[in-house]
Amino acid sequence: MSQAPDPVKVGRKYFEWYYRSADPRDFSVTSLPSREFAFSYFGEEGMRRHISFGGLEELVEHLRTAIPRHAFYSTAYYRDPGAKDMEEKGWLGADLVFDIDVDHVETPCKELHDKWICKSCGASGWGSVERCPRCGSEAIERHTWVCETCINVARDEVLKLVDFLEMDFGFSRHELLVTFSGHRGFHVHLESPEVRELSQDSRREIVDYVKGLGLDARFLTAKTRGGYKLRYEAPLGWYGRLARWALIKVGSEDPVLSLSEWRSIVEESVTREAAAVDEKVTIDTKRLIRLPNSLHGKTGLKVAPFSVDELENTSIIDRAKVFTEGEVAVRLEEGPKRVLDVDLGSGGVLTLPTYAALYLLLNGAKLLKFEQR
Predict the structure, then answer these.
(1) What does the domain layout of the chain look like in residue ranges?
(2) Which residues are catalytic?
(3) How many other C-beta atoms lie within 10 A of the C-beta of residue 350?
(4) What is the average per-residue pLDDT within 183-206?
(5) Which CATH architecture has domain 7-101+176-209+279-322?
(6) What is the average pLDDT across 312-336?
(7) Taking residues 295-299, what's their average pLDDT?
(8) Residue 328 near residue 367 (C-beta atoms within 8 A)
(9) What angle do CA 199, 27, 327 make, to 5 degrees?
(10) Contact 329, 351 (CB under 8 A)
(11) How far apart are CA 354 and CA 342, in angstroms?
């Protein structure tokens, strides 16, 4: 009888091969000596941080010898990034970074791969619930997975954000670095000097804007004969978005409507066009974010970088796959029906691409066998 695979032992073997064969230039980041780095390792709990490197060669040597399960670097720049006390690091500024996670977006595919268990009454099921449908408890344990549909939905949210950054804030898409997080979403990096010294409050205002928070029909419209119309005629910004949705809903970009009708248009516009970004990540001026081209320790997928044009025209999963050669025979119990771009059916004995088998193992699936073919 096959012995259950050890995620630590198996994962480290694959990660070691990757880091020792990858191009060192893939791990280069802007102003590397001014960044703090942090790592989690196979077989260890927690994270080791306050690490700095004098250059790319030192960083790559660490990746190849320590074989981290997770690798992070700071969005901030410091005079002394290796200082243990945050106050002693000497903050010099921070990139503007956005995080988009499919957990914050409703997708129909969650019933195929996300499982919930009520800690109060033991009820369980597939999909996404806020509270237990049997007893009403909010003490829910969740086991989440990701598939191609999830990732494409998150990509659409990134493209909404790019529209705001380009059209409303005037940044070029060539200034943006987008990375697939390696798991359930994306990070959007803006390293322009103009944003580095933005305060937390300024960053929060940007988040509120792209999420459409605080938009109120009473202040966006002006009373006129017969009702209300948009206060300003502007092709861009939220006024432009509201005008487009007015055209869709009532056939005119500058209609006179009741206040309740404008409220409905505002709600529709925010629902369809706001970007689902995580406020906590953007306002944190000392945030640690995943290192581009490192591997995600819960999936074995690469934190793959994209230009905006590539994001629109490239398969995310294909770019993020690393272990594409060979197959692995697994025995899967109580697993999801679909992960990544692979259908798993009802589980049992399966022969899977290596990247899919490793993903199941690292993300906690009940595997009774993991045999390389």
Answers:
(1) 7-101+176-209+279-322, 110-143, 214-273, 324-373
(2) 99, 101, 278
(3) 22
(4) 96
(5) Alpha-Beta Complex (3.90)
(6) 94
(7) 98
(8) no
(9) 125
(10) yes
(11) 11
